[in-house]
Design goal:
With about 675 residues, the protein is of the alpha/beta class. It folds into five domains: about 110 residues, 3-Layer(aba) Sandwich (Rossmann fold); about 130 residues, Winged helix-like DNA-binding domain superfamily/Winged helix DNA-binding domain (Arc Repressor Mutant, subunit A); about 110 residues, Response regulator (Rossmann fold, 3-Layer(aba) Sandwich); about 130 residues, Rossmann fold (3-Layer(aba) Sandwich), CATH 3.40.50; about 150 residues, Alpha-Beta Plaits, CATH 3.30.70. It has 24 helices and 31 strands. It has a six-stranded parallel sheet, with helices on both faces. It has a six-stranded mixed sheet with strand order 12-20-19-21-22-23, with helices on both faces. α6 crosses α8, α10 packs across α14 and α21 packs across α22. The radius of gyration is 27 Å and the shape is globular.
Length: about 675
């Protein structure tokens, strides 16, 4: 594991270790490093001296006290011998000064790993799967598995982390060091091929299980599986194989999902500062210039994802008009939002004719600007979702696969209508396509079944049929279908209708499931997701922790500094929770100043440690009133675990709430478990 703030140095070390066949995690701050060290076992930890602070030193001291003997190599610039003191404080095994050559660093790393008596073995086994890291071979039940390099790398990733769920995006980032052209399609195709080869060797058909909305994980032979008729079909893209098969890189969240880039072109420096600060709280990187010439230079070097252009319509120069036109006709187009003090239909029409994607009338608050920016960014890419397709006509299903695979949809084909309800609940699709003509159970009847359950009232349903009678079309809409598509299928028409339905459906979900202030999930969405995780936890016999966080003395902040400052505190808490917890964790604003977390696969002890660590980070945040008076915030938290403290969300909530109440009774600013 490498903790390094210098991304160029981190990339150089990463590439060198990849060639050596090493597994490497990269963290850019000690908070992410802390989470990785708690989650995974390492043969060596490389620490950047600059990244160490008091909390980091205390953490590593505690690790040594509890018996952690992982070698630590400290890397940094020598300053008056302070590195020696830091090395001693964290229990470092060795120290190397910067600047350092990669070959020199590799030699030191190899020496420390070779001399480490606690290093991981070269052969590891999980149940009947065995991996030999020296020979780069794998076997199942002592029978060799003939895997390509991508499949072998995937299997190594799953076996080393057999109790972890990986989303496609996380797997893609883990393999990023091998081949930059990998896509989620490639990864899913290789997972299916790997699962088939394991099955051919006698493994369960679902030894690599897909947990909807979470990702893939290894499951035991006795694990409950999906129906036999449920299959995921992806586009047949080529599989890259030019990499070391047993190398995997799990990037830290700061590196996994690059923030969208916003370029602000405006003369108002005060407004620019406000917009930049607001953009950061929305997870957007903002850059600003004051004229078109500077903007062209930035766009040429590093095109932004979106541009905010101040355009005084009556005094607009030719350069500004040309820039607006160029961006709208670029390949791909760069969306431009125009802000202006002019208002009226003619002004809006002029902006539209020039290619502007949005019209913002000044003065406008920064949060409304970022809401418009976010909305435009979401529209920039076509919606991607899970499509469940029910039909028995092989020719039609093959045609649908050909048409839909290139668009990046997750396709679920069900050929046995008798398995419909189980498949629907487990796959939780974003759109349902039904063939009107089905044996035993018709498409109309399936549509009726779906609409009878309130949970599926908003699910878009498309009906396919060769029937053209008016009464047939009328019946389709009467039972609750959203659209009717005639056979034979016209590809462009089908794609257009699917994209339209998905976009509207996802916009509706975004509005109904997201807290408007903090931009994290609201209680309604969290309840749905946590209850789903509870069902998975029951099926897989895994723990799940539910935590309640309540800001201490928040009412006094509102009373003293005003609700606008209080809102800034709430937004910051939501932002930091997203940064410091896993993407698969459920994070929501439960109500008011109360937040909730759902942590799948984690026991109470580790959940408590994570919350305490996050509380330490939260205490360090500095907020300022309008008069620039600084203040800090704390929170109290209570944690409950399934199934120890309850078998359903209601009982878990009561247990966590009792622990939260006790934390407040004991003086607040602490985390307690039930």
């Amino acid at each position: 594991m490498l903790l390094e703030q210098d991304k160029n140095f981190a990339a150089a070390v990463q590439n060198a270790l990849l060639i050596q066949g090493c597994l490497i995690d990269i963290a850019t701050d000690w908070g992410i490093c802390w989470q990785l060290v708690e989650l995974f076992e390492y043969d060596l930890i490389l620490l950047d001296l600059i990244s160490l602070d008091t909390n980091a030193i205390k953490f590593y001291q505690r690790r040594r006290l509890i018996g952690d003997k992982t070698p630590i190599l400290l890397i940094g610039i020598e300053k008056s011998g302070t590195y020696k003191e830091s090395a001693k404080q964290v229990g470092a095994t060795d120290y190397i000064k910067k600047p350092v050559g990669i070959e020199t660093l590799l030699t030191r790393i190899q020496k420390l790993v070779r001399e480490n008596p606690y290093a991981h073995p070269s052969i590891i086994q999980w149940q009947k799967i065995q991996l030999n890291f020296l020979d780069c071979q794998a076997s199942y039940n002592n029978q060799p598995l003939y895997l390509n390099q991508t499949e072998l790398a995937l299997l190594a990733l799953f076996v080393k982390n057999h109790d972890r769920i990986f989303s496609l995006n996380h797997i893609l980032k883990n393999l990023w060091g091998f081949e930059e052209n990998l896509t989620e399609h490639d990864i899913e195709l290789n997972i299916l091929q790997l699962r088939q080869k394991l099955q051919d060797s006698g493994a369960s058909a679902e030894i690599i299980d897909k947990i909807h909305s979470l990702g893939y994980c290894l499951t035991s032979e006795a694990q409950e599986t999906f129906p036999d008729d449920l299959s995921l079909i992806k586009s047949q893209t080529s599989v890259p194989n030019s990499f070391n098969p047993l190398v995997s890189v799990r990037q830290s969240p700061h590196l996994e999902n690059p923030a969208p880039r916003l370029l602000i072109i405006d003369h108002d420096l005060s407004l620019i500062q406000s917009l930049t600060t607001e953009a950061h709280s929305w997870g957007i990187d903002a850059e600003s210039v004051q004229n078109v010439t500077q903007a062209r230079q930035i766009i040429a070097l590093h095109p932004p994802d979106i541009v905010l252009l101040d355009l005084p319509l009556k005094e607009t120069s030719e350069d500004e008009l040309h820039l607006l036109s160029e961006l709208s006709h670029a390949n791909p187009p760069i969306p431009v939002l125009v802000s202006t003090k002019k208002e009226g239909f003619s002004e809006r029409l002029k902006v539209a004719k020039m290619g502007g994607q949005g019209f913002l009338h000044k003065p406008i608050s920064p949060d409304l600007v970022m809401e418009a920016v976010t909305h435009q960014l979401q529209q920039k890419a076509p919606p991607v979702g899970t499509l469940m397709i029910v039909g028995t006509d092989s020719v039609m299903l093959e045609l649908l696969e050909t048409l839909l695979s290139p668009w990046g949809f997750h396709l679920i084909f069900l050929r046995n209508p008798q398995q419909f309800w189980n498949t629907l609940e487990q796959s939780n699709p974003d759109l349902l396509i039904l063939d009107f003509d089905l044996p035993k159970v018709s498409g109309l009847e399936l549509c009726q079944i779906v609409r009878q359950d309130p949970r599926w009232n908003d699910l878009p349903i498309l009906m396919l049929s060769a029937e053209r009678k008016a009464e047939t079309v009328q019946k389709v809409f009467e039972v609750g279908a959203d659209d009717f598509i005639h056979k034979p299928i016209v590809g462009p028409e089908l794609i257009a209708r699917i994209l339209n339905r998905l976009e509207r459906h996802q916009m509706h979900l975004q509005r109904s499931n997201t807290d408007g202030l903090t931009k994290i999930a609201n209680r309604r969405k969290a309840v749905q997701e946590i209850e789903r995780l509870l069902r998975i936890a029951h099926r897989q016999d895994k723990p799940l922790c539910f935590a309640l966080l309540d800001l201490d003395h928040f009412k006094s902040i509102n009373d003293r500094y005003g609700h606008q400052i209080g809102d800034q505190v709430l937004k910051k808490l939501g932002e930091l929770l997203k940064q410091h917890f896993r993407s698969e964790d459920i994070i929501c604003r439960w109500g008011g100043e109360e937040f909730a977390l759902g942590l799948f696969g984690i026991e109470k002890k580790l959940a408590t440690e994570r919350l305490k660590h996050f509380l330490a980070i939260w205490e360090q945040q500095i907020f300022r009133s309008f008069e620039q008076e600084p203040f800090h915030m704390t929170f109290s938290a209570g944690i409950a675990q399934y199934p120890n403290d309850g078998n359903d969300l209601q009982s878990l909530y009561q247990s966590a709430d009792s622990a939260l109440y006790l934390a407040k009774e004991r003086g607040r600013n602490q985390v307690l478990s039930s």
